[in-house]
Amino acid sequence: MGDEAEVSPKDRFLTVYGRKPVLEALADDGLQVDKVILADTARGPAATEIQRAARDAGVPVQRASAHRVKVLAGNGKQDQGVLADVVAPRMRSLAAALDDRRPPARVLLLDGITTPANVGMILRTATAAGLEGVIVPRRGVAALDPMVVKASAGVAFRAPVLRCGSAREAAEMLTEAGYSLYALSASGKSTVFDVALPQRAAFVLGGETEGVGAAVAELVTEWVSIPMPGDVESLNVSAAAAVLSFELVRRSS
């Protein structure tokens, strides 16, 4: 199963960066912050405030070079010299979820969704609907950063995120584990409301412009549609995810 054998820090934490997001995470009693990393160039009142907040929360502060902070944040120019690793209690590797005694029956697989707002809203919707897993590959999908957290209204910290290398890798692992893969398409003969689902099903949500990528498409079991009687060609991917997620709620009720 490739790089799933070792547990990556990215399978345990969500990293937030910037003074305000870090301070908000430290002030939230419902979150467990593993550590704060502060650039050795960070000085003055802002740095002092972060150190005080971390001390009050019992969170260790590590110093690192400004370059190291940028690399760890992975964001370019907006880290403001500080980041925090926040424990995401429901986040784990896809491999671990599939090896569980009771693997998730219904999961979403994100394939090429690069807009943080869409990823955040999908995580919020799927969590609200009680889905057991949203597969967010490390490559080809928007990074789980403060923009995703903001779009999810903070739910991303507690979402059932499953990590893997790529959407293709996830599709192969799911197929091997006995899941049928369904993807949304306007030309699908069955709809999300009437398709017969097996015990284990994964639903692929494609990118904003390209849709489901060719590498994953060749493993799709069936293409299904969302009926739209009105004069609209398609829905935003996060809206489509909401329709799908709450149809699964309806079926289980």
Describe the structure.
With 253 residues, the chain is of the alpha/beta class. It has nine helices and twelve strands. The protein has helices at residues 19-27, 45-57, 66-73, 94-99, 116-128, 146-151, 167-176, 214-217, 237-252; strands at residues 13-17, 33-39, 61-64, 82-87, 92-93, 106-111, 133-137, 161-164, 180-184, 190-191, 201-206, 222-225. It has an eight-stranded parallel β-sheet, with helices on both faces. Strands 1-4-2-3 form a four-stranded mixed β-sheet. Strand 7, helix 6 and strand 8 (161-164) form a beta-alpha-beta unit. Helix 1 packs parallel to helix 2 and helix 5 packs parallel to helix 9. The longest helix is centred in the last third of the chain and has 16 residues, at 237-252. The chain starts with 12 loop residues before the first strand and ends with a helix. Residues 1-5 have low confidence and may be disordered.
Which helices and strands appear, and what pairs or packs with what?
Layout: E1 13-17, H1 19-27, E2 33-39, H2 45-57, E3 61-64, H3 66-73, E4 82-87, E5 92-93, H4 94-99, E6 106-111, H5 116-128, E7 133-137, H6 146-151, E8 161-164, H7 167-176, E9 180-184, E10 190-191, E11 201-206, H8 214-217, E12 222-225, H9 237-252
Parallel strand pairs: 2-3, 5-8, 6-7, 6-11, 7-8, 9-11, 9-12, 10-12
Antiparallel strand pairs: 1-4, 2-4
Helix pairs in contact: 1-2, 5-9
